[in-house]
Design a protein that fits this description.
The chain contains two helices and four strands. The protein has 104 residues and is of the alpha+beta class. The protein has a single domain, classed as Translation Initiation Factor IF3 (2-Layer Sandwich).
Length: 104
């Protein structure tokens, strides 16, 4: 599945717009890593546990977006974007969305 953050695919023509597709995941770290992250906020620096959590969440969201597009019969998804939100303390939602299209 071709994913593009721009609204077109260079060298290709969009022949049909199939609609909005998305993939979402809500994820959190376990208590031990969450405690270590709180300590890290005191001393400063990157909180690698959360960085890894969000990287994994983006990957999963893109996989789900791609599957949604495949299920619609799309060749590509254009205008791919991410949103994040805090669901509760120590839990975040990552959503990937875009427009499923057929290319000619």
């Amino acid at each position: 599945m071709l994913l593009s953050t721009i609204d077109q695919v260079p060298g290709k023509v969009i022949v049909q717009v199939l609609g909005l597709v998305s993939g979402s995941v809500v994820t959190s770290k376990h208590v031990g890593k969450d405690f270590m992250a709180s300590v890290k906020t005191i001393v400063g620096g990157e909180i690698t546990g959360y960085t890894e959590m969000l990287e994994d969440a983006r990957r999963i969201a893109l996989q789900r977006l791609s599957q949604d597009a495949i299920d619609m019969g799309a060749d590509a998804v254009v205008g791919v974007r991410f949103t994040t939100s805090s669901i509760m303390q120590s839990a975040a939602e990552v959503t990937a969305y875009g427009t499923a299209v057929k290319l000619g």
